[in-house]
Amino acid sequence: MVSPAQIRMARAALGISVRELADRADVADSTIHRFESNKGGMQTGTLERIQSALEAEGIVFVSADFSGGPGVRFKG
Q1: Beta carbons within 8 Å of 41's beta carbon, 6+ residues apart
Q2: Which of 1, 34, 59, 66 has the fewest C-beta atoms lying within 10 Å of its C-beta?
Q3: Integer Cα distance of 76 and 66 in angstroms
Q4: 2: helix, coil or strand?
C-alpha cells in the first residue's frame, strides 16, 4: 500500500495539484488533503483509484528495501 508521502512525491513529480489528482481519480480533494497530511486513513478502493490515476501518468511506486525507504519514479 502506498504512503501519504509517496502520493505527495508523485504529485510533485508530475507537477499536479491535489485538485487535479482528485479529478483524475474521481475522489474528493479533501480526501487527498486529509490522507497526505496523515490526518486520516483511506478506504482501500479509494487509495487504489488514486494510485491507478498516478500510475496512468507514468508513476511507479517503489517499496522500501535495504537501500532506502519507499519512493516514486517515472517508468523507464
Answers
A1: 35
A2: 66
A3: 22
A4: coil
3-state secondary structure 9-22: HHHHHHCCCHHHHH
pTM: 0.93
Look at the block and give the residue holding cell 504512503.
3
> CA dihedral in degrees (24, 25, 29, 35; nearest 10)?
-140
Amino acid at 20: E
- Helix or strand holding residue 62 (H, E): strand 59-62
65 strand-pairing partners? 68
